[in-house]
Amino acid sequence: MALTQVYWDQHIPLPQLAPVPAKVTVALVALLCFINSYDGEFVFDDSEAIINNKDLKSTTPLNNIWRNDFWGSNLSSNSSHKSYRPLTVLTFRLNYLIAGGLHPIGFHVLNIILHAVISALMIDVFAVLIGGLAFDDKGRTLNHAPKTSLLAAIFFAAHPVHTESVAGIVGRADLLCALFFQLSFLTYCRAFNKGSDRDYRFSVQWVVVSLLLCAAALLCKEQGITVLGVNAAFDVLLICNVNVYELSQRLLFRKNQLDIMNYNYYYSLNAWLLLCPWWLCFDWSMGCVPLIKSATDWRMVWLLLLWCVLIGLISQALCSQDSQRRRTLTLGLVLLVVPFLPACNIFFRVGFVIAERVLYLSSAGYCLLLAYSLGHCCCRWSKHRKLLCVMVFALVCMYVVRCALRSHQWRSEQSLFTSALTVCPLNAKVHYNVGKNLADRGNTTAAVRYYREAVRLHPTYVHAMNNLGNILKEKNELIEAEQLLSKAVSIQPDFAAAWMNLGIVQNSLQKFEEAEQSYWNAIRFRRKYPDCYYNLGRLYADQNRHVDALNAWRNATVLKPDHSLAWNNMVILLDNIGNLGQAELIGREALRLLPNDHTIMFSLANVLGKLQKYKESEGFFLHALRINPNAASCHGNLAVLYHRWGKLELAKKHYELSLKLDPEAPGTRDNYNMLRRKLDQLKRNTP
Prior knowledge:
mainly alpha; elongated; disordered N terminus
């Protein structure tokens, strides 16, 4: 069938919206791929962006969202990540308020719904990008845009590279950015709509709406600004009808003075993730991708292959006689490349080499090019159309299965981290996260093995050294722990947590002067460090420097009013040195802030008992036991109170309860035996 006449209506870029059944089909494919992640846990970056992010809680002023970064730190702080995504954080806060707390199901469900909506809207985006009408010599339409748009949207809905954005809650930023990106693009297209009788009208209002939606995309994730590039490319290519072939000559042959060999290799790896998304990992840093150090490295083949494919597509986009092909390929490449530009390390450095989340929007361009190519093959090789259809169906099924498997791995940190070991065995961060997860679950022996491997792969990995040092400290392997922590702070002198942990180890080794200096180093690098003040207070208490200890613990409670251990230690220390009045005041102050803390109740009850305020002391003991009924020490001390108070039967009851819970409780057996002798004596003296 000969193609004899081609018409490209450049003033009507927006076709009729896709029918509802097509959108429902695409949405269902998206749901099918990722529905099994709905009840997953908070994993990986979710801990910092959601669990530890104070901006989600209703007790935090709402306007803090506009002053803080994505992780809840003030933008002006040196420790801030500088990622400004207030609209994304706002949706997290709404999830938190609706669910009444940190329940991951609501967060996951919204992510899945957003991906389904975005996938359905992609039909309209692709239809705009493809556009155009082609006729044969008999006037019959050859336009396959609806089918191609639908197929491309299905590819997008089911592409496994999207798993991180959908199954990882932090990926909400990419989803919201993509949604507003789509809406901004579609409304920009509406600005160039056709009136009646071929009266073309330009709508400033739609352009303003498009810019507002672009701003919303930017406030969800920085990548949202790239919609301006796509809009501009659409305007230049279709509305202004610029001759891109002539313009491209200057750009394609411009000499680049930068050595970007490794960056090009990373681009080829990103392309491979789109083409064959079976090689997926939650993190691609720290040795996961070894650097190319020589032009003879065999991996240079991938760079050449990438540019051969791109040059082939660009040449078709520029030189094809089919205007619809030029339009589709050009705009498909624009949608593939432009959203990726913020992550390409050319205009500015970013903190990663490969990240699956950044491919969420770029994958739309890839899906469009893939669907268009398959559609072209079906037209050209009509005899093999059934075989091609079977291959397309098989590809979609493979995508769906891979999405289901990958989203299942994202359900928990254990499965997510361990899945990366086979993909990136040289990635120190992968081993670190596996070790951290094992340590959090109590398997410190296995955690040590992975931490050691992380340090072996990356000898300056201070966080792995710090965590390994902590475990060795708990195992009482203090010498090696001190060596590791000393090395960590020598590599990164401002690592406050490592300084504090080094101080704890040195204190255990009775190196008191070194420990004190380590604590003060930690405080110097992190001025608001209540845990460090708490440990400094313990050091002073061990040295009988009571005033210094009390001051350190007071500093801890000023910085962190709910620091239970610091409050409790102040009460105990004042009790031990006989300052019962001050101990009572501190205990009551602590309970006003922590009314349900049974340890402080216990300590205050002891103080009140010594002050012979028996009734009040009894009340605190009983309240503490209602909260923690299996506390042997609480039963034992309440028994002592009753013993002093003369309520001997109650004393006997609680002595027995204490010994039942802890038969080896120090002093309790002796007190109990003393009470029994007294009761026996009373019985003998009773007539």
